[in-house]
Amino acid sequence: MDKVRIGSVGLGRLGLQHAENIAGRIQNAELVALCDVDKPKLEETAKRLAVRHQFTSFEELIACKDVDAVVLVSPSALHTKQIAAALNAGKHVFSEKPLGVNVAECKEAEKAVEAHPDKVFMLGFMRRFDESYKYAHDKVAAGEIGKPVLFRSYSQDPEKFIQGAIAFAPHSGGQFLDMAVHDIDLARWFTGSEPETVYAIGGCYAHPEFAASKDGDNVSCLMKFKNDCMVFLFAGRTAPHGYNVETEIIGTKGTLRIASVPQKNLVEVLDSHGVRKECSENFLERFDTAYVNEVQEFVNCIFNKRKPAVTVYDGTRVSEIAYTCKNAFETGELIRF
Questions:
Q1: Angle at 8 between CA 7 and CA 14, to 5 degrees
Q2: Hey, how many other C-beta atoms are within 10 angstroms of the C-beta on 189?
Q3: GFO/IDH/MocA-like oxidoreductase domain: which residues (predicted)?
Q4: Residue range(s) defining the domain that contains residue 115
Q5: Which of 85, 119, 153 is the endpoint of a domain?
Q6: Same domain, 109 and 183
Q7: Based on CB atoms within 10 Å of each CB, which residue in 2, 21, 226, 311 is the most buried?
Q8: Of 185, 187, 177, 175, which is closest to residue 235 (Cα–Cα)?
Q9: 244 lies in a domain?
Q10: Quick one: which of 257, 255, 266, 283 has its CA closest to 156?
């Protein structure tokens, strides 16, 4: 195998970025097929990226003999069935989160992956592949900050995108499922432990529309992990300053902070507003390199015949934790896992 021949499914915002990355930024990979129901967009993208196979049917894509692996960036409700179908068709599979829209679907995905031990399956928890998060994780693993005492992580979307969030609210599953899953994954990864209890609060501080979906525009939770580490997560949709993801790990011998001051780059702007730094616009800009790194790892695993560190079981466990956080938020009770 000279190159892994990839078929990418879905051409939304993230799907388009994945397709462009595979076409021009991933080593030992070739984008040979695209699939999307929007035929004009499919044709335009395929022409621009010089992709020879175009499909509006997922079933036709996985039947294509020129495809070795698929990258799923399709609607969340389709992930579980598409993972199983692609594996059954003999393809390696990379899927964006979530693994499924509920825990039962995640369990189905586990069975599909277990039935094909010769195939590589990887789930897209991209923050693990961000250079700063990897650097910090290496320091924690080396014991440089001692025993982790507190893990704190914030995920905030810009207020200017609020109408899209309101429209998506009935289908999102709530902020713990839609936004905080990456923070939950990081908490497990950094602490090497699992949650024991959770208490969650929040509300509709600026946009009462979220209440109809039993959600809030800003929510938080405090968890105690089995290794006694305290874990605090915050997810918000009303950041006035831009896209903001920050994390802090406090240990017995030191503290690590990742992006404690959100910034687009190292430029400082001096104007009539004073001296300031600009924020990233969205997750695509902030985690641009991480999205490249995660698919590169997927390709490397196929070439080297090894399994990725991010597994199907991580997807299930994060979903279980997120649903428990959601339950704690809705009931106002302290819940044990």
A1: 165
A2: 19
A3: 133-257
A4: 4-119
A5: 119
A6: no
A7: 21
A8: 175
A9: yes
A10: 283
- Across residues 116-140, what is the average pLDDT? 98
Residues 242 and 155 in one domain: yes
Q: Is 65 exposed, middle or buried (0-12, 13-18, 19+ CB in 10 A)?
A: exposed
Q: Give CA–CA dist 125/75, Å, rounded.
A: 16
Give the residue among 222, 50, 73 at the shortest CA–CA distance from 150.
222
Amino acid at 168: F
Take residue 237 and report the two structure tokens written for it.
């949709």
C-beta of residue 151 within 8 angstroms of C-beta of residue 232: yes
Rounded Cα gap, residues 93 and 83, in angstroms:
7
> Each residue of 247-267: pLDDT tens digit?
999 999 999 999 998 899 989
Average pLDDT, the chain: 96
Tell me: the pLDDT tens digits for 61-104?
A: 999 999 999 999 999 889 999 999 999 999 999 999 999 989 99
Contact assessment for residue 12 and residue 72, using Cβ atoms and an 8 Å cutoff = no
| Residue 268 CB neighbours (<10 A) | 10
- To which residue do tokens 């990897």 refer? 134
Structure tokens at 216: 């809030």
Q: What is the DSSP letter of 211?
A: G
Domain end, chosen from 70, 101, 119, is at: 119
Tokens standing for 24?
A: 């021009």
Give 105-155 as a 3 state SS string.
HHHHHHHHHHCCCCCCEEEECHHHHCHHHHHHHHHHHCCCCCCEEEEEEEE
108: which 2 tokens? 């189905």
